[in-house]
Amino acid sequence: MTTDATPTDKYLEVQQSAEFAGLRRKLRNFVFPMTIAFFLWYSLYVLLSAYARGFMSVKLVGNINVALLFGLLQFVSTFLIAWYYSRYAAKELDPIADKIGDELAGTTVAATPEPVETDTTAGTTAGTTTTTATTDPEGAK
Question: Low complexity: which segments have biased composition (predicted)?
């Protein structure tokens, strides 16, 4: 990355880099198939509930039927996908994103905060202490 570019140029350079493209590809390779799989699983549940009432009303154990089991499995699959994504992101995505972020932070021009002087003096009202923060416009030289 160039060091004398504007922040906008730096972000555009990162966006056009091979590392960033690889990161996006890895993310898409996880998200799209998982989304399609979950959508198909959910659609199966909805379609079976609407058109296969006999199958969905089959009792498995006591009052627990296939529809209830499939409904609960929707929650289980949601949590499993979230857990799997968390592991995948930590192993595959986060190291690349951290590297890109570190490179960007290393070349980003940070705004230098103005120095702040704190002056603590004893107040005259009932023994309280007054704290006043002042800014030195010339900077600490």
Answer: 118-141
Q: Which amino acid is at 53?
A: R
SS3 of residue 118 by DSSP: strand
Sequence-distant (6+) residues with CB within 8 A of 74 are 41, 42, 45
Q: Is the pTM of this model over 0.85?
A: no
141 located within any domain: no
Q: What are phi and psi of 2, to 5 degrees?
A: -80, 150
CB under 8 Å to 42, separation ≥6 — which residues?
Answer: 74
Q: Strand, coil or helix: what is 9? A: helix
- Total tally of structural domains belonging to the chain: 1
